Amino acid sequence: MQKTDIAIIGAGTAGMSAAIYAKRAGKNVIIFEGYMPGGQIVVTPEVDNYPALGKVSGYDFAMGLYNQATELGTEMISSEVIKVSRAEGGFNIEYDGGEVFSKALIIATGAKNRKLDVDGEEKLTGYGVSYCATCDGAFYRGKTVAVVGGGNTAFEDAEVLASMCAKVYLIHRREGFRAEPEKVTKVKNLPNVEFILNAKVVALLGGDKVSGVTLEDTLTGEKKDLSLDGVFVAVGQTPSTDIFEGLVKRDKAGYIIAGEDCIAADGVFVAGDCRTKKVRQLVTAAADGSVAALAASEYCSAD
Length: 303
Ligand code: NAP
Hints:
2 domains; FAD/NAD(P)-binding domain; about 30% strand; binds NADP nicotinamide-adenine-dinucleotide phosphate; 7 helices; alpha/beta; elongated; single chain
């Protein structure tokens, strides 16, 4: 079985920052990624809040991290981890293609898109229902679409879509937004964006593809249908932590319980969006990566 000092699960901003710090601390590092390196940031059109970087595309940011981590000698295994179990002196990590033993483990699996959980969503996903405006927006050039949500992602999506669609509705279940006020103002000023507030999507309509949504007014309970060519769901994320059940403690929403020291259990460290914390940003994911990596390196050197 292949052996390493530190195994990192997840190659987003937190995981790759952890790899950079652990390599620089002289450790052998394997990082697992089932999809593609970069995590959520790969599909973010523009990052403009990472200190000192100015404006940079999410893809360039992710590739910068990937190049830095691999040039330092991080080994990347492009395979989904199936099972992690505690073993004598470390952990066994089973993936589709083999098994790795590591002395310490860093969990940096981030979060995946939350669903609306309404009728028609499963059937119409990929047929007019999307969770990524940057990936799928171009299919709706000149069309009428809606973005559902009131956070930063929803507002970024609305801005991207407004640049190519004829009309964009922003549907949100209340009047206040989680998104930064600057983003809200920018989108409010776009001529082809219309806000529909205090409205809940209760059904996605369509046969072979989306034809619209049924909305329910959260104040009056009144229902009405809205015709659309596409629906972009941006209602937040849920953490990808199910495979760590039993190894670490999780809160009700599934986030792994750990403080700013990123310690989740003996030999297990957790970094980024999958950890309990208040602020989930690129800069806090990178910071967690460094904290987790240095703690894991110290843990490995302690024997
Ligand atoms: P978020 O901030 O959690 O916002 C989710 C939004 O969806 C909220 O407005 C929420 O409404 C709404 N929502 C949740 N469940 C819903 C449901 N079942 N039906 C209808 N609406 C629902 O998620 P996010 O926008 O994806 O952002 C995630 C994190 O990444 C945040 O910390 C965000 O700041 C960060 N982020 C940062 C940037 C950036 O800085 N450039 C870009 C994107 C994301 P309520 O408000 O009513 O709960």
